[in-house]
Amino acid sequence: MEFEPLVKKYDKPVPRYTSFPAMPHWRIEDFESKDWPKQVKAGFQATTEEGISLYIHLPYCESLCTYCGCNTRITVNHAVELPYIHGLLAEWKLYLKALGSKPVIREIHLGGGTPTFFSAENLEFLIRSILNTAGLHPDHAFSLEGHPGNTSYEHLQALYRVGFRRVSYGIQDFDLKVQKAINRIQTYDEVKRVTDWARKIGYESVNFDLIYGLPFQTEESIRKTVSHVAELMPDRIAYYSYAHVPWFKPGQRAYSEDDLPKGEAKRRLNALGRDELLKLGYKDIGMDHFALPGDALYLAMQSGQLHRNFMGYTEHNSSFMIGLGTSAISDLGIAYGQNVKTVENYIDLVDSGQLPVFKGHMMSAFEQDSRAMILNIICNRWMNKADVEALPEDRKLIFKEMISEGLIIGEWDDYKVSEKGIQFLRNICSVFDPNFGNQPSKKLFSQAV
Fold it and tell me: Considering the entire predicted model, what is its pTM?
């Protein structure tokens, strides 16, 4: 079977598997917020010397990017910075109490929103305050998301001083017409400047986030974007599919659905971008991620150290992640918990001495085993023969069909994802997902392409 018909066949709604179970399958009715501190302690005690991860959500942006699906707060009032940072530190203090002993931090990721909305001074204060209360893993990895339009040399320098060595810039597309439609305007010169600054300061990895399927995108605009990528050669690329959910994110109503490339047109943009990135020498990590051969992410994949969580792919297998800030999600290895989504509610809760988790999911032993199996596919591209034999008969038929299509190949007594099958990792994982297909009729997941 030719590759293009396969892409069309498997272009259907599938979980992204940043968690298992996927959030629509969480049993939130069984979750009790009052029990969360006990789960935190139990999950922390089960960790080894690997260290813990921190995801810190900084929701503020000065303007709304209309494509964005993140939890944001739009304001130009920078007086909000310190009260929010004090809220983050109050929440961290509550977690330190729940952990029961001093943690060792291995990963920190600043996400948003726009982390560089905050001043360099305030970001450095936040990170130093956290690090002063914890140990630091010798092989730590700290990263931030930066807006090319407002990331300053001072931002990069201040965060470098406290251990940051990776930065991700949200580019999306270099075409001005597309940028105007999504209200995310930054010039090539601005992107080049912040990329050069990061490298001059000593950052070890620069990532560009790109999106295909945006309004007014064409094959020509994708080629233009990739040509600029070729001039700057970031160490990593995330080439995401745009998810159009205006009923969930009203900002996306700023343009018409008729302005979006859909179906075959969108699939061509995906194939074009992927092909061009591979020609430049990037390696396909999977799940929309690409990296140069010398980057730590590719090396982690080669050595079997690759991991995936709510921060995406990481090069450390940290099984315990605390999410700080509004809407942040914590992954304790045995449970998930999500914070309240509004700043006011969040501040009120942490100021009153309560962890701000409002919903979550307690994982059964079966779910933990299923999660390990799915992570193995995502990160190692490998499936155990016993797990395949345990599939229901209808899933076995799908699996055999994927073998006949060349997406999966047999190797000794086990199976692995072929090079051809890397683009279909989400579809392959869904075969081993006992929840997939049990969702209500309404659309819960984004298209695979």
Answer: 0.92
